[in-house]
Amino acid sequence: MDDWKKKAEDWWETSIIEMSPGVINYRGHPIQELIGNVSFPAMIWLMLRGELPSDAQADLLGHALVAAVDHGPQAPSIAIARMAATCGVGINNAMASAINVLGDVHGGAGEQAVAFYQEIDAMVGGELSRDSVAAALEKRSAIDKYVPGFGHRFHPVDPRAPRLLQLVEEAAAKGVVGGRFATIAQLIEATLAERKGKVIPMNIDGATAVVYAELGFAPPLCRGLFVLSRSVGILAHTWEQMQQGGRNKGPLPRDATWTYSGNRASSAS
């Protein structure tokens, strides 16, 4: 019986949570000591990294999470949440429907950008310069012309990116982060502008990737962090749609039907 009990206890071995009657410890910290003393961004850090961040690190993480909360119903995830809400499902179902479309194309660029910055950093090595980053970018472009984190189909200049970079620069000046990945991102932006003959500005994914890279988060975690951030907007839009009502609202109004491009039956002679 003891062997069976030990096997059962080891089945889901974890260093994240310890729990027994009257005891809840996250990463070794009693929950009652965390409540009221730790911010939500700091709690995310603790759960993912196994240690509490400094207040300045938690603040910078929180800034990135705030920046990506919502982008309106023109974003597929938000539109899907609102459509799902009109189908009579619960709030969790609508949120899950939206979160499930946050993939490589919609929601994954932040992860890709962090990996991209790290790749450029490894290729450059040593001191950063416009020439060294341009050379690394040239090598990468020969393989993949897509540059994650730059350009936006809606915004000529993404208003979120400059503010996040400003906050990273302030954090670097205080020694909270090193600032190397911010420099890499800015040099990439300058190189792209030189090549294209016009500015291809950093977007929200590129800017949050700077924050996450500076804070040392692994690329796959950055997609999860985006999901946490965007879930706030998804929840807000789901709840608003539930208050507005409506039944079975699709992507188009009833009198704006889609363009049919298939065959048509010939009329009877």
What does this structure look like?
The structure is a single chain. The protein has 269 residues and is mainly alpha-helical. It has a domain of 113 residues: Cytochrome P450-Terp, domain 2 (Cytochrome p450-Terp, domain 2), CATH 1.10.230.10. 56% of the residues lie in helices and 4% in strands. It is built from twelve helices and three strands; from the N terminus they run H-E-E-E-H-H-H-H-H-H-H-H-H-H-H. Strands 1-2-3 form a three-stranded antiparallel sheet. 31% of the residues are buried. The model has no long low-confidence stretch (mean pLDDT 91).
Concise structural overview:
The chain is mainly α. The chain has a domain at 109-221: Orthogonal Bundle (Cytochrome p450-Terp, domain 2).
Structural class, by secondary structure, is mainly alpha
Share of helical residues: 55-70%
Shape field? globular
Largest sheet, described in full? 3 strands, antiparallel
Individual helix count: 12
Spans where pLDDT lies below 50 across 5 or more residues: none
Report the C-alpha radius of gyration, rounded.
23 Å
- Main sheet: strand order: 1-2-3
Features:
Citrate_synth-like_sm_a-sub; 3-stranded antiparallel sheet; 56% helix; Cytochrome p450-Terp, domain 2; mainly alpha; 269 residues; citrate synthase activity; 12 helices; Citrate_synth-like_lrg_a-sub; single chain
Element layout with pairings:
Layout: H1 2-10, E1 17-20, E2 23-26, E3 29-30, H2 31-34, H3 40-49, H4 55-67, H5 76-85, H6 91-99, H7 109-124, H8 130-141, H9 160-173, H10 180-196, H11 204-214, H12 219-244
Helix pairs in contact: 3-4, 4-9, 4-11, 4-12, 5-6, 5-12, 6-12, 7-8, 7-11, 7-12, 8-10, 9-11, 10-11
